[in-house]
Amino acid sequence: MISPEDLIALVRNYNPRTNADRIADAYAFGEQMHDGQFRHSGEPYFTHPVAVAAILTEQRLDDATIITALLHDTIEDTKASYDEISTRFGDEVAMLVDGVTKLTNLQLSSRETKQAENFRKLFMAMSKDLRVILVKLADRLHNMRTIKAMRPDKQAQKARETMDIYAPLAGRMGMQWMREELEDLAFRVLNPEGRQSIIRRFVTLQRETGDVIHRITGDMRAELEKTGIEAEVFGRAKKPYSIWRKMQEKDQGFSRLSDIYGFRIITASEEDCYRALGAIHQRWRAVPGRFKDYISQPKSNGYRSIHATVSGRDGKRVEVQIRTRQMHDVAETGVAAHWSYRDGVRSENPFAVDPAKWIASLTEQFDAEEDHDEFLEAVKLEMYSDQVFCFTPKGDVIKLPKGATPIDYAYAIHTRIGHACVGAKVDAIRVPLWTRLRNGQSVEIITAEGQTPQVSWLDIATTGKARTAIRRALREADRARFVKLGHELARSAFEHVGRKATDKALETAARALRVSTVDELLARLGAAVLTAHDVVQAVYPELAADDSDEVPPRRAVIGLEPGQSFERAPCCQPLPGERIIGITYRGRGVVVHAADCDALGEVEDQPERWVDLHWHSGTHPAVYGVTLELTIGNDAGVLGRICTLIGEKKANISDLEFVDRKPDFYRLMINVELRDVEQLHSLMLMLEAESDVAAVARFRDLPESRPKLG
After folding, report:
1. 202 vs 207, 245, 254, 255, CA distance in Å?
2. In this record, what's one Pfam family (predicted)?
């Protein structure tokens, strides 16, 4: 275990003005509180908080964060209280320790909905002080480094949680080194055979090719010296998990992977970064499409660097990252650079971002998500995203995740622009809304009054912000539509029992059904969460119970305008009980189709003609014709038995046509008149069970055999 003197020495390396007495006091207090506690490995428990503090010294963090690391488990696991820590070490440390304790209590690997709910709490905790999550990440890193002492099932749970949540969070915060180590430690648990196979192949490759890293590093230094550029050059092989992920993504074997080595060039100035890039490109060929300039277009977490992939004479590719020392500090510590110290003072790094602004940009789009699963989806979309940079017509830069579309771009500018989007131009050329945007493109959004978000946009949008805004708009639009439809359903249902759906009657129904408002009652009725029978019964139970009168065909459909007529579509022959859609025709009224009718595809671009309809909830007369296609055996008396069975089901045969006659079987179309879809299913089940019936199906007119829905 690191001694208090050694820990203080680690802090003094970057902060000579540290309050050594305060850190020593926290060390002694933590050691005393955890006295008698042991880890699964048998070591004293306090070795863990000390190791977490040591990890945080590598990021050159302030005294308050180091002390928090030493005390982060005291409130949770010892008799120490919040007030005691506040009195002894100050309110700042007490709040940080309390924040870490609350994060520790979140069971982030439980089932999905719970996980999403806890993820929301995690972001709320982060928003108060980002140092809470820095301590938690260091805590998780040390736990993963020492995970072998845990039970195998617990190892797998922690490793999966690390891979799904903590590793991408570290990457999103800009701490790429921590992300890579967390991923690799989790990979070691989740797929030890896969990891070992990668390592074995590395050893074989090194035996065959020699020390590639040393050779290329030397070549790069020589090229930079030729052009008079002072720079440090470092090379390394990529982590096993990073290589495994590339193999899975590209569906390639290890031998076919090229850029498994990475090199970093640290220069003295921004100008030298671009000069170094020129020197590298003079010696090695640039790989097209594998260049990113994060210096001129930094990531939201402050990351700046030039990324270039180059290819040598042997065809092997290597990735080169070029940055200044200050950029490198931010690249190593990410958002934590805001608190970093150098020579006893807070580091004045111009590239460090304000953590509060960073958190606000990451969480603003999540506030509107009411559904936990949608929130989790939105968070993961943002966490795993790489970035592309597009330009507005005025030259402003819009940052988007890789794979973003004009829909995402429109919502990134403003929610109002997104809602009104009808098209887009990329580099002055009109493109479909599902086009994937690329770095450096200029994008112009075309808007129109009256446009509203479409359900299909959810399949196009890739950002959490866009998908959240679209869902919210669709929910609001659906609610207004459902309230209107619910009002019609209620009016018709009350009239059916000789009453009126007055405001007072509906308020009474809402109270009886424990619904907060009349609008909410009508919305649920329109969305089929409640039935019209439920609403009537809540007010007039004696009338609703005696609801045996048949619904006349002229009143069978609800949702029409006053005086509007309707007819059933012959292509799908919808029945009461099925979901239906109305299509308006000038001079013809409304034609009612089943919601799954193929004919609706012909008018999907004319939403103004669509009408939301429902069948009346009462009992309907058996007057609705449906065509059945039957294949029956060619034996004496078979057809007579089939007709008798249909009659026994109280269905009337209105037409019968033979369409195929063979020596062994007949194929025929029978038009039967039915009450509803339930009677149809009952009839078809009975016919299927008949031994002389080889096949029975509901016949629907094919698109090519009927006139267009013009």
Report:
1. 9, 16, 9, 10
2. TGS
